[in-house]
Amino acid sequence: MELIGRIDSTNAGEWENRIKNNLPESGDYELDCTQLSYISSAGIRILISVYKVLKGRNSELIMKDVSPAVKEVLDLTGVADFLKFI
């Protein structure tokens, strides 16, 4: 799934629905972050929630083409420690 623009408190609910509605029944889940310019704590909460679902299935949440700015936020919050980046 492709993430575009910003994920913040104004649109987190919408993004959460999109992301969770596209979760595969099994296997890893890839989020294409090529066009993701910003993620707030609301977006990070979504990633953690999806990560927990996938971990329960022995699958991974894969973040593809994350910008340095978004990666820095994920690093600073500790979320990067349990995500896979390609």
Give the arrangement of secondary structure elements.
Layout: E1 2-7, H1 12-21, E2 29-39, H2 41-56, E3 61-64, H3 68-77, E4 84-85
Parallel strand pairs: 1-2, 2-3, 3-4
Helix pairs in contact: 1-2
Report on this structure:
The mean pLDDT is 97. With 86 residues, the chain is of the alpha/beta class. The longest helix has 16 residues, at 41-56. The chain has helices at residues 12-21, 41-56, 68-77; strands spanning 2-7, 29-39, 61-64, 84-85. It is built from three helices and four strands, in the order βαβαβαβ. β3 (61-64), α3 and β4 (84-85) form a beta-alpha-beta unit. A four-stranded parallel β-sheet has the order 1-2-3-4. The radius of gyration is 12 Å and the shape is globular. α1 runs parallel beside α2.
H/E series, N to C? Answer: EHEHEHE
Q: What is the terminal separation in angstroms?
A: 14 Å
Q: In one word, what is the shape?
A: globular
The count of helical stretches stands at 3
**Quantity of strands, as a count:** 4
Which secondary-structure class do the elements indicate? alpha/beta
The main pleated sheet reads as: 4 strands, parallel
| Low-confidence residue ranges | none
| Mean pLDDT figure | 97
Measured as a percent range, the helix fraction is 40-55%
Question: Could you tell me the radius of gyration in angstroms?
Answer: 12 Å
Percent of residues in beta strands: 25-35%
Output the strand order for the largest sheet. 1-2-3-4
Provide a concise account of the structure shown:
With 86 residues, this protein is an alpha/beta fold. It is 42% helix and 27% strand. The model has no long low-confidence stretch (mean pLDDT 97).
